Amino acid sequence: MTNPRDHIRLIKKSSHGDEAAFSQLYDLYRDRVFGFALRMLGDHETAEDVTHEAFIALIEHPERYAPERGSLLTFLCGVARNHILLHWRRRGYRLEEQMADDWQIAAPCAAAQNPLNNVLGREREATVAAAVAGLPVLQREALVLREYQELSYAEIASVTSTTVDVIKMRLSRARQSLTSRLSAYLNSEEGPHELHRSTTKSRTCA
Amino acid sequence: MNCTEAQQNLEPALDGVLDKTGRQLLHEHVSTCALCKEKLAQLEGVRALLREAGPTQPSQSLDARVMGSFRKHHAASSGGAAAPSRLRDLFLGSLRVPVPIMAILLLAVTAMVFVAYRTGKQNAQYIVGGPVAVVGIPEAPPETPSVSYTPLVVDKTVPVQAPSRIVQVASRHRRNKSSAGIKNEVTEQPLKSSTVITSNSTSYSTVAVLKGFEPLPTATARIIKGEQR
User: Cα(A148)–Cα(A5) distance, rounded to whole angstroms?
Assistant: First the structure.
């Protein structure tokens, strides 16, 4: 069900109150929109609020979705992004300054504190999440939309209201930064322990 | 392809946007260049690490919230649409008049009401402030040729009761000459068509005519006094 025509048909039916049609759309995109919000915000509850707002936009203003401008996922991620930026503005952040110090990663902290969960895979996952969280916001959103949501350059440019060249540049910088931060995992199978100490040194897991 | 060109193409190749020729050239270069090969391996390694992360799932409460919002929105919108329909049924029943025609009819009725109001107001103004016509000028009675008259002047106005019907009314002012002197009288009578009130031997009359269909309860008429020399 990735055909835009099917989406348009479902949107039209749901706009007339067809709950089954809307439920179908919601099931298709719930996890992806939520995943984008969670990886951008790092907070489960706020990410759910943002996801809720994205689907409310689809419920109340289905006419705003223009298939010629991108996929439905692009539309939903665009709405979610606006609410993420609004959330940060309310908290007084500026886009270029918002860094990982304010990012709360519940799962990695729990994994680091609980010896039972302190297995290599989870630790690596936590470290990667922390490295992604440490990226500047604009690089992070480009990376998340490309690597997790698997959007094209053009779709990412549409979501973030910028150009493809700018997206390429942000992606390149984000990957360079991650290559540097995750070098221990990239060069050695046993590296995570040393990397984890270096990345968690400045973070608190209160 | 040199190293600079190859490294510029590494990420497009990773993202699947490099064309077939570019991919072939890059593959040939990477197979012979250790540095570019290592950079490509790092990019692929970063991608593998990122995609190791498990899927993220929201709680079930989000499902309930979103579906609740959907039901609430459509319940509100369907309730809002029903109200005008009930109103329309109340006034028009089963009659269905297109909106433009209904608008034109309403405008026409409004214009007619306005014109009727303006006409009535103008007539009322005419009655209140309009001139009181003098249709009869007293002349000297033929039987008293020795008596001459000065030009008539208005010496006072008196209230005259106006009729409530749509008629022309003449207020007749008679001056009776008697031994005690000249006496003014005011009478009223419906004005018949072609009525000409003339003087007679004992009196001189003037007539005030009121016209209109909405007269005031009272009006005024001038009494013209003829002074005998």
Answer: 24
Average pLDDT for runs of 10 along chain A of length 206 = 75 86 90 90 89 90 84 90 88 60 42 52 79 88 90 90 91 91 70 37 33
Higher pLDDT, B92 or B65: B65
Specify the residue for token string 């918002």. Answer: A98
Contact A53, A80 (CB under 8 A): yes
d(C-alpha A23, C-alpha A11), whole Å:
10
Find which of A119, A147, A153 to mutate to test the B interface (most B CBs within 10 Å of its CB): A147
Residues B160 and A61: their CA atoms lie apart, in Å, by: 73
CB within 8 Å: B15 and A146: yes
Largest CA distance in chain B: 151
Q: State which residue of chain A sits closest to B59, comparing Cα positions.
A: A48
Q: List the structure tokens of B197.
A: 């009130």
A to B CB pairs, distance under 8 Å: 100
d(CA B43, CA B47): 6
CA distance B202 to A75: 105
Q: With contacts defined as CB-CB under 8 Å, which chain A residues touch B59?
A: 44, 48
CB contact under 8 A, B62 and A39: no
Displacement of CA B44 from its chain's centroid (Å): 72
B21 to chain A, minimum CA–CA distance in Å? 20
Distance CA A29, CA B208 (A): 92
ipTM: 0.71
Are B51 and A30 in contact (CB < 8 Å)?
no
Cα dihedral B49/B51/B53/B56 (nearest 10): 160
Question: Given CB atoms, is A39 within the 8 Å cutoff of chain B?
Answer: yes
Q: Which of A188-192, B77-81, B161-165 has the highest mean pLDDT?
A: B77-81
Closest CB to B51 among A129, A147, A182: A147
CB B141 within 8 A of CB B199: yes
CB B131 within 8 A of CB B120: no
Chain B contact for A115 (CB, 8 A cutoff): no
Place of tokens 């992360």: B53
CB distance B59–A171 less than 8 Å? no
Report how far residue B104's alpha carbon sits from residue B107's, in angstroms, rounded to the nearest whole number: 5
Residue spans of alpha helices (H) in chain B: 3-15, 20-30, 34-52, 60-92, 99-129
Please name the residue ranges forming H helices in A42-71. Answer: 44-60
